Amino acid sequence: MAGDMPWPEVAVGNANHANTAVVIIGAGLSGMCTAIDLIKRNNCRNFIIVEKSGGIGGTWHDNKYPGCCCDVWSTLYSYSFAQNSDWTREYPGQEEILAYLVKTAQEYGLYKHVRFNTSVENATWDDAAKKWRVKVKTAEGSKDAEFNPEYEIVTDFLVSAVGQLNQPKWPEIEGIKDFKGRVMHSARWDWSYDLKDKKIAVLGNGCTSAQIIPEVVKVAKSITVFQRTPNWVIPRGDAPVSSLWRNVYKYVPPIRWRKRAAQMDFREAFYDAVIDGQSALAGEIRRQSTTMMREQLPGREDLWEVLTPKYNPGCKRVIISDDYFPTIANPKVSLETRPIEKITASGVTVKNKNGEAADVGTEFDLLVCATGFQTTEFLHPIELTGKNGRTLSDVWKNGAQAYYGVTVENMPNCAMLYGPNTNLGHNSIILMIESQSRYINGLISPVLDARRKQQSLSISPRPSKIAAYNEKVQKVLMNSSFADPACKSWYRNEAGLITNNWSGTVIEYQDMLSKVELADYEVEGTGKAIVEKNPVVKVGRVVEETQVSDRLIAALSVLSVGAVAAGWLMRNSKYALAIARGISVNNTQYVYYILSFRHTQALTIMEQAYLTPMSWRPRPMDTSTQPELRVPTPTSLSPVERDAAQTHLEEARQTFMRGQMAIMDQAPAQDYLPSVNMATQNFVLKFLLREQELKIQGLEGKSAEQTGHVGDTSIKQAETSQVRAAYSFDDINGGTTRREETSPMAFLLPPIEFAQNKQGEKPEGPTLDNTMSQTFAAQLNAMPFSAEEFEQSNSATAYNVPEPRVLPLTPGSGVLCRYPRGRKQRVEKKRKPVPSVRGVHARAGLRGFVNCKGERVVPPKGAGSVLV
């Protein structure tokens, strides 16, 4: 509608108001994702989003109850193409999620496409025109209703993005309409009602209830929780995200990517827990839940029994909460496990074990129905009529099913997101939504081509494909924890068919939807040749789970060696020597094992790190205290694997040295970050961003030797000439360390001591060459720090330390030495080169220097310099 004039310009008659290429029902996560993909992938702005509420956000706009938040990590609960670096907590709340969605809608210009306070009454397929006729109605009492209360939109493709958490499910309990107090559903919370000093009954004890109760108990006089069946509850571990880390995620995206990838990997690992109730991870959920319950409810055997589920983890959604059990123990809270018989005008009647009715003894002011949604009625209350007048309710009379959970039999040019068998019990649903959005846009593409050519085209899934696909899915689901007869969950319909959950992992689903096989569809219309010409539409998938994992593992290998080098560089720091003593092969291997989720590959690369001919290769100080791991031997590696591992190590080694140089030269982040790979960005910026924060603080804190791990979150910087920082990969993979505890995965970046001349001036940083492994060896071997001195520091027992010696470099003509204190070092500066994208040069160089023999050395033209 926009034109050259500063007011809306439209063609006479405004035909596009009621005729568009695509209609999307719903402006929540799914609808927004589809619209953005239409813009990005199909270069299409000719679409309308119909939204029944007054704002963007879908379920996050509708659900505003106290304590409303997400049970998926914030980094993972965002679009891959619009990741948010500004989350203030590890688990986001409703307001913050809604703000993120509003911001994303604004960035992609979606608001002009949305028609708020408008609902779809019905949609009918016009087989002759190969189009949908969508009847919409504006909300009564709204301003729009005064102009156009209802009208029809004609569209080539219809997308349902109403999801599974759309319509509230009210409890079917006798007498609920006779209750004289206030009744509200959690999804329709009335904030005008004052909860102070009220007696409240909460019907339901699932995820929503577990979020509401801890908040409401702060002001209520009493709360009675009516529990039908108990739930498995595991620790949440929420924590605020500091402004420092928000800046890191904002300005160093690879760190955010790595955190998201690690979280996705971690969540994917829990697939076994929810699909197989007897798996090791399912047992771990039982153990964690039982342990936490007994710790938070000490001596309450009466509650232990009624709060311990008798079904497998995964049959119902696992609750992630740190304060549910403590709230149940609150004197103002009572747990009622007897089944509800009926609701009276002021109270609730329950049924005793002998079948007799009994009143709970409390007159309630408010009934809160935390009873979920109508999850098995995917398009309720929209009436959909497809080919030959057949309705969706008729197609789904035996249970909802769809091809890949996206397209439905007899419904041409129609697709849905978060449809049948696409819900997850172990990972972020946004990962599924993005795959569906890509796939749907692959279906829309040929329809748009036909529209541009003024041709007709309809695409409908073959019934045989739908039947075969769903038979395969149900076969897995009926043998999973979801089918456990010991519990009743919203995953199943009344007939016992599991219509909500996906049977595999996220990655399996993403791979499956990475291309549109149009041979799986019945194609009709004058534009049929478009499909015949391009029978496969490749849409790809978002690869996040291994985006930077391999390089990070390689970088970690070098970090273990770098921490040993710190013992040399900081020879006057007894703390640095303690760090050196704390490193061992097995300990670092254990860190890799935890972080990588790819055990064999991680340990293989780690083994290669210790095959390199470096004189400073560490050996364990006391292997009896280290985790025992089975490490593949070098002889088990093929030549190809050995070369690949060595390549990874060489890249990581060069990256590590560039990072040191960038820090020593105090280079602005934008000057050197393009020159280093992702693994370097994961740790170098930690130095720069924390330097000001740490420089005035002392070295108090637990030593690495005490904790048994390398590094600690309490390491501080003592001198402005020394950059020291604790770098916790627990921070990257799951948030800041909680409750002041030392992270079990903390890992130290090697401290750096700037080379100084007699006047204390810091020399300019050098350029790099491609002989970095030799450079690194030369740097360490050139240190004027003898084996005798190291022996006196009581650290020689941990490592083999050679005598200092000079290693010639190629193509250079000497090495740069670190001299004993007070000895002059001559430096000649040269013009700083432009950083190379490939990372050959990073910041600045030394034109000439004095080697360890006291000789002035000027490298030949084109030769690289070495790094201090």
UniProtKB/TrEMBL annotation:
Domain of life per record: Eukaryota
Pfam short name (any one): FMO-like
Disordered: annotated span: 617-640
InterPro entries, A to Z: FAD-bind_Monooxygenase_sf, FAD/NAD-bd_sf, Flavin_mOase-like
Composition-biased stretches (Polar residues): 622-638
Keywords: FAD, Flavoprotein, Oxidoreductase
SUPFAM superfamilies listed in its UniProt record: FAD/NAD(P)-binding domain
An annotated Gene Ontology molecular function: N,N-dimethylaniline monooxygenase activity
Family: Belongs to the FAD-binding monooxygenase family.
Protein name: FAD/NAD(P)-binding domain-containing protein
Lineage of source species: Eukaryota, Fungi, Dikarya, Ascomycota, Pezizomycotina
